[in-house]
Amino acid sequence: MAHYLIFLGSTRTTTPPSPARLGERVAKACERLLSSLPHTTAEIIDPLALSLQAPFKPHFAYAQADAPDDLAELADKIAAADGYVMVSPEYNHSMSPALSHLLNHFGASLFAFKPSAIVTYSMGQWGGVRAAVAMRAFLSELGCLPVSAMIHIPRAQEALNLDGHFGQEQERWESYFGRTFGQLMWWAEAASNYKSQIDPTKVSPAFKTAPSQRNAPGSESS
């Protein structure tokens, strides 16, 4: 059984714009479609359900026993998941601050050697496509390489109902989502199978001590 986490990149609940929290519809559609596939489960990760600390303190900055329960639980879910779906609107041609804030609470080693899928949306005609371009670099650095196919939903308020079902052209929309999710599942299964043969953490150990571990030889200041 493969399990996928769907990260909802929205915390805004007020209007305007209207309808508020449009991304919730998108996340529900992703959850419904993934969960309908054989041997597959999916779960929405909603930042509003987490008590993220202020000022910012990531999960990996706590001593193991001291991390807040919700962060510790989510860290375990991230480590156990087979892949990820990242749902984001577009802010200044980039991903939503709600999504980057949530993901930045966790180290790349939890996401590493697994695939992700990019899903963007907007109330206008572009469907958040410019945010998706920026998300590729972010997710690659996080270690969950995004598959080539992406999902962009223009006028999401018309395309999706409150429950995450398509208002029209359901077959075409499901086929469109299916291409991306098919790639996600293929890579997730390939990664899982190969991990049973070769431990990726031995091929490329995680950097967990200090940022300087990433430095090239000779780059340290004298």
Automatic annotation (TrEMBL):
InterPro entries per UniProt: Flavoprotein-like_sf, FMN_Rdtase-like_dom, NAD(P)H-dep_reductase
Keyword Transcription: no
UniProt-listed SUPFAM superfamilies: Flavoproteins (SSF52218)
Start-end of Polar residues biased regions: 210-222
Domain NADPH-dependent FMN reductase-like positions: 5-154
Region ranges (Disordered): 201-222
Domain of life assignment: Bacteria
Needed cofactors: FMN
Gene Ontology molecular functions: FMN binding; oxidoreductase activity
Gene3D superfamilies per the UniProt record, alphabetical: 3.40.50.360
Keywords, in A-Z order: Flavoprotein, FMN
GO CC terms of this entry: cytosol
Keyword Chaperone: no
Name of the protein in its database record: NADPH azoreductase
